[in-house]
Amino acid sequence: MASLKVPATVPSPSEDAEQLRKAFEGWGTNEGLIISILGHRSAAQRRAIRQAYRQSYNEELLKALDGEISGDFERAVLLWTLDPAERDAWLANEAVRKWRPENRVLIEIACARSSGELFAVRQAYHARFKRSLEEDVAAHTTGDFRKLLVPLVSAYRYEGEEINLTLAKSEARMLHEKISDKAYNHEELIRILTTRSKAQLIKTFNHYNDEFGKPVNKDLKSDPKDDFLAALRATIRCICCPERYFEKVIRLAINGLGTDENALTRVITIRAEVDLKVIAEVYQKRNSMPLERAIKGDTSGDYEAMLLALLGQEA
Predict the structure, then answer these.
(1) N-term to C-term CA, the chain
(2) Where residue 315 falls among pLDDT bands split at 50, 70, 90?
């Protein structure tokens, strides 16, 4: 369930655009007004506000925001204001340009979205950067990571619930064979993870657990420091249980040495209209603390206020 709270009655896009313009005028910026508007509007409403702002003031809202705010607050507002596909395209481009083996952003985008959503991301990427996402991923990654990531971001999985039980059993055995042989980069293992539907994969992983006595991710922990094995585990978690995957990202962002604001901002902005309410429930159960309180303890100022708005705090 989404955490975003939109008022029952909202002003017209042109009225919201006018109020945002007022937030930028005079001495200082009215950050609270920005949060009260953008932090409580859906993707369609934000898109309409951007269009109204452009028509009224002959300026892009994102450019205006960029000139008025800064730091973690700016990143949160700008990411949130983008359309979901635009946002993912921007995050994907940042991930490939600054790619490191431990970076999981491309896996999140490829595996925690529907096939239609991932296709829209590829279209948005193409439109904005004049290159395909696939070619950039191939150009900036190497070795086993390229073998995994290129087909992941290129995938268009079947979205239905139909499954093939015989196939699930045979592919569970195939996965076990390759993992037991430590052939983690085997083309058959990669093929299964990158092409099968999510429903089919969940059935395969369940059969793996039933037949071999432990979850597939446990068998992929033979070397906890191996970044490629961690990437395989992240792929499986994003496909099977994205809410638990993203809870862990938030937990590590908050509990590490210093807050990882980029990771925290990313998860809050990309999941607020998807399942952030469920992620917050998983977080509270796992950490015996409400996510809202954890964010209050680790952030401050306008950045904190924006994140709490997206978590569902009333305007």
Answers:
(1) 19
(2) low
